[in-house]
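Quick one:
INPUT:
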């Protein structure tokens, strides 16, 4: 812990020295952030931690998986599973299960990818990250414009605006293990109408035996500028058909050339599709007041084999939502204010069945079959007060009400025959649940030199229990009496630009989470765990010698238990232990060259060691990887690019775990070479 503390002290000193490097400087073109307020806002003066991955970086990375792109964001690690599966760490350890995905808000154009209470750990594969306009990330509890799930942060995938001049692009790409991807985009503005159509499809034969996937995504955006009303509408859909590979077991088996391609679950699969649509209508009401009204629709469905459980049941789940969001924004003298209301109704369901008897406690047949009608409604306000030319004060308040109406469509009680000694599955009777939550945030920013900002912030966040935590009970638990999880965050930071060539951001945070939901020694879902999250995040972007650039995104953090919850399978005190899958250091660095018609970039990715279970008795040693990317123009409109992943062909694990008495790994792929041709017409 002493080493971590020293680094936490050094990082702000680095930021101070960078800020002091330039006494004066001219303000460059203002950088904006949309996610915090749902309207463009000066990103420099926002008193919260945020990062942006722009369209240029998205195109250069050409990510096959969200993991590759989000390595550019300090504090964020998207742990890669098999195929398109993933788990998220955002100012947190990698979190799993219903509570894990419920701790982060994943959004597209500021609308959650999944309905509150119905999240999925893999939900980022629903978003069209491959062709996004940019990705914005808020770290820590978000502003009052976001409610449940925006605890550890928000990942918001923003669609690109239609181009002013019509353009078309076509890309074809091939890589290892029969990987192929094609992408098309048309974008243009014609009078008052702007159209942006993006589509991509990929197929992957899979590095592991009997594993691979096919995936398709489509996004259609229409903008209309009228005399009184402006409209932005988006229709987006995705489809995934995946043959899934499970963990391979054995200590450091990822280093064994004879075993690293094994797939112990060749029968596993995951099929998922999603559709989302919204239309945002906005108009000026006079005196600088802006009104936004946004109705939206969401439909998700997923079917998969639970290969990670010995009895291998099939889960079929889905939900359909209708929502309405209204927002009014105005300005009076030095005060900018936002007030709004939103409501969302969701019809969700889940069914779990098992084809064959495993034991009397895990029998064949229907384990769960239920539906939940959910209603979430909220009122919020967020204020920004320009106290002086240099001082900005921000504050916000949100009240949110979540209601669940649960209906069981199979027999109440255990799913097993009466002679079962310890039935695994219990179906509660029909019931209703209600959760009321409030979040508050207050922050200030001080521009002590031009483009040099010091900020401080205090905020809390929350999440209502997920429906699966409340109604998918085990071992005879008849009612899950759960509270909403709560998190409090205090942070300070520096950000700015030095001499027009160096952009930097450094932040220190201290977060505590209460009423954490977990599964106890009786397999009951209960509240009461506490966790502590402390860390520092550093981002540097430096441009030099006209065409060269360098970047660093680095995180130092400690995520630990703050009490001794009676976790399932544990008989020792874990208070103060590291939470599993929480590396204390990780990050990436880049060195690149960008000319008029060519680009090259070398990337270093670092992941520190981490523990694999709460007693901290087993660990993964971490890894270092190098990736190389380059592109060049071949002729007018035609360009070629090459990406080499894992350049040094390191043996590593994308994710390590310890369960059922064994080390378990998702194997990292060896060196891979991807070649692409891109054709651009117009623009």
């Amino acid at each position: 812990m002493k080493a971590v503390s020293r680094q936490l002290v050094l990082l702000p000193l680095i930021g101070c020295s960078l800020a002091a490097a330039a006494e004066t400087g001219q303000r460059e073109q203002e950088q904006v952030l949309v996610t915090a307020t749902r309207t463009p806002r000066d990103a420099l003066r926002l008193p919260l931690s945020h990062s942006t991955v722009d369209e240029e970086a998205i195109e250069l990375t050409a990510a096959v998986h969200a993991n590759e792109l989000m390595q550019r964001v300090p504090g964020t690690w998207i742990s890669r599973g098999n195929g398109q599966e993933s788990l998220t760490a955002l100012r947190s350890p990698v979190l799993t299960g219903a509570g894990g995905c419920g701790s982060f808000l994943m959004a597209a154009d500021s609308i959650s990818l999944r309905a509150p209470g119905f999240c999925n750990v893999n939900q980022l594969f629903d978003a069209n990250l491959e062709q996004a306009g940019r990705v914005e990330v808020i770290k820590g509890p978000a502003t009052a414009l976001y409610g449940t799930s925006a605890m550890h942060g928000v990942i918001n995938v923003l669609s690109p605006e239609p181009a002013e001049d019509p353009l078309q692009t076509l890309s074809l790409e091939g890589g290892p293990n029969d990987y192929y991807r094609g992408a098309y985009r048309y974008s243009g503005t014609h009078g008052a109408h702007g159209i942006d159509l993006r589509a991509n499809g990929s197929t992957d034969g899979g590095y592991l035996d009997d594993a691979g996937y096919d995936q398709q995504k489509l996004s259609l955006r229409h903008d209309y500028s009228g005399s009184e009303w402006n409209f932005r509408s988006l229709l987006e859909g995705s489809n995934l058909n995946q043959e899934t590979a499970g963990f391979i077991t054995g200590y450091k088996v990822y280093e064994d050339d004879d075993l690293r391609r094994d797939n112990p679950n060749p029968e596993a699969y995951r099929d998922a599709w999603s559709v989302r649509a919204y239309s945002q209508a906005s108009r000026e009401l006079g005196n600088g007041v802006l009104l936004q009204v946004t109705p939206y629709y969401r439909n998700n469905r997923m079917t998969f084999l639970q290969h990670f459980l010995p009895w291998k049941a099939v889960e079929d789940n889905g939900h359909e939502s209708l929502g309405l969001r209204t927002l009014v924004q105005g300005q009076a003298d030095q005060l900018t204010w936002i007030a709004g209301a939103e409501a969302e109704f969701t019809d969700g369901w889940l069914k779990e069945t098992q084809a064959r008897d495993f034991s009397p406690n895990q029998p064949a047949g229907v384990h769960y079959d239920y539906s939940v009608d959910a209603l979430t409604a909220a009122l919020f306000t967020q204020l920004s007060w320009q106290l002086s030319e240099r001082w900005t004060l921000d504050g916000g308040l949100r009240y949110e009400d979540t209601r669940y109406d649960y209906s069981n469509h199979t027999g109440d009680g255990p799913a097993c025959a009466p002679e079962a000694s310890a039935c695994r599955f219990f179906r509660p009777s029909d019931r209703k649940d209600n959760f009321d939550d409030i979040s508050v945030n207050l922050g200030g920013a001080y521009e002590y030199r031009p483009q040099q900002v010091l900020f401080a912030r205090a905020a809390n966040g929350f999440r209502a229990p997920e429906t699966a935590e409340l109604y998918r009970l085990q071992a005879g638990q008849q009612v899950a009496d759960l509270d909403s999880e709560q998190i409090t965050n205090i942070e300070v930071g520096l950000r700015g630009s030095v001499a027009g060539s160096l952009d930097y951001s450094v932040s220190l945070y201290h977060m505590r989470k209460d009423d954490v939901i977990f599964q106890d020694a009786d397999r009951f879902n209960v509240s009461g765990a506490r966790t502590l999250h402390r860390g520092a995040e550093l981002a540097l972007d430096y441009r030099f010698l006209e065409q060269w650039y360098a970047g660093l995104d680095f995180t130092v953090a400690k995520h630990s238990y703050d009490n001794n919850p009676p976790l399932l399978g544990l008989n020792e005190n874990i208070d103060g232990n590291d939470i599993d899958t929480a590396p204390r250091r990780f990050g990436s660095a880049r060195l690149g060259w960008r000319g008029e018609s060519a680009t090259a970039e070398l990337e270093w990715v670092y992941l520190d060691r981490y523990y694999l279970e709460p007693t901290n008795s087993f660990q993964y040693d971490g890894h270092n990887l190098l990736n190389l990317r380059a592109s060049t123009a071949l002729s007018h409109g035609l360009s070629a690019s090459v990406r080499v992943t894992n350049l040094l062909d390191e043996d590593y694990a994308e994710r390590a775990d310890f369960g059922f008495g064994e080390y378990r790994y998702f194997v990292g792929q060896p060196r891979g070479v991807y070649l692409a041709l891109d054709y651009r017409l117009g623009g």
